[in-house]
Amino acid sequence: MAELHIIGQIIGASGFPQSSLFCKWGVHTGGAWRLLSGLREGQTQVDFPQTGEMAHWSHPIDLHYTTKGLQGWPKLHIQVWHQDSFGRCELYGYGYCHIPSSPGHHRLQCATWRPLGSWQEQLAQMFVGGGPQLRSPDLIYSGADRYRLHTVAMGVVEVELGIILRHFDRYGIES
Amino acid sequence: MASSNPSVFLLMINGQIEGANFPEYDDLYCKYCFVYGHDWAPTSGLEEGISQITSKSRESHNLIWNFPLDLTFKSTNPFGWPQIVVSVYGPDTFGNDVVRGYGAIHIPFTPGKHTRTIPMFVPESTSRLQKFTSWLMGRRPEFTDPKVVAQGEGREVTRVRSQGFVTLQFNIVTKDMKKLGYDTSPGSSEATPVTGLSGMDQPYTL
């Protein structure tokens, strides 16, 4: 069986309205993939940057997968949350990116979005915060039911990933 | 040395902790250590170190350590790839050593020269009472073991403040990774690199 190593970091995020941010992340794969070791999901620390507006998480990722097929190549999905000084959390963005399929070192920028409510909800959000969230988080990485959503652009999450492939060439896979 | 059927691969790290950029602090020193998985073992070199104290000069605001890293690891499995953990300390206004930042990064795995700048952060008190007592006593929250910054678990409870950067340089040499079947760079497989797999529509079973 072919093996895939994903080693890297979720570096941080920028371009969000406020910078006291944290991130929930997970890796989604198809059925042919099996996780041998490593954490498939997690949550970063909350960073309150002193210099600049970029929040830094330096959250390590180290995953070892084996696979019997190429379908369902791993995807990294993320949710960015804002935590205010009272400890209240508010959703700031959803996003996903494919794990690169070529070996080597990659720096990815994952653009994020958040659902936009009706104008009443937007008005309420301006004054009391909060806002609509997805009921089923699989919408982050699937395109099936997206057409019913109305979204707005949020910031960018930076991810640094190294990819090591093993025995893919044995099966004629050119990556 | 030349064995045709290797069972381990080697990772040689030559590099340096070049320096740091902390706009608010001066007279800093740093410590480093490595965090790695069960399959990994260091074969030569120093796994931990502590640098000199460096100050900003009048000309530049950079702190320079120029602190050497020379280390070799061996392993059978890339899982648990080594991470370097750097922590920076300096005196506060009363002369006590307090931590000014923790940071970590995976050692690059493609052979060659790499420069990495890593963000440095310190933990924050979670409650206002703790914040007040730490201000009163002049003691900042610290991690009892700096190695937690290289772990992905249990971070959701920590609140941090990032306040600087450390620049590291690495020269990486690997041995026998290709012989063990590991592809670490796009050019290393014989086939021409193809980006994206979207062209493969029908199921392709390995």
Automatic annotation (TrEMBL), chain A:
Pfam families: B9-C2 (PF07162). GO terms for biological process: cilium assembly; establishment of planar polarity; establishment or maintenance of cell polarity; opsin transport. Keywords: Cell projection, Cilium biogenesis/degradation, Cytoplasm, Cytoskeleton. The keyword Cytoplasm applies. It is found in: Cytoplasm, Cytoskeleton, Cilium basal body. GO terms for cellular component: MKS complex. Component of the tectonic-like complex, a complex localized at the transition zone of primary cilia and acting as a barrier that prevents diffusion of transmembrane proteins between the cilia and plasma membranes. PANTHER family: B9 DOMAIN-CONTAINING, B9 DOMAIN-CONTAINING PROTEIN 2. Belongs to the B9D family. This is B9 domain-containing protein 2. It comes from Clupea harengus. The gene is b9d2.
UniProtKB/TrEMBL annotation, chain B:
It is found in: Cytoplasm, Cytoskeleton, Cilium basal body. Residues 183-206 are annotated as: Disordered. The keyword Cytoplasm applies. Its main location: cytoplasm. The keyword Protein transport does not apply. Keywords: Cell projection, Cilium biogenesis/degradation, Cytoplasm, Cytoskeleton. GO terms for cellular component: MKS complex. GO terms for biological process: cilium assembly. It holds the Pfam family B9-C2. PROSITE patterns: C2_B9. Belongs to the B9D family. Component of the tectonic-like complex, a complex localized at the transition zone of primary cilia and acting as a barrier that prevents diffusion of transmembrane proteins between the cilia and plasma membranes. Required for ciliogenesis and sonic hedgehog/SHH signaling. Part of the tectonic-like complex (also named B9 complex). This is B9 domain-containing protein 1.
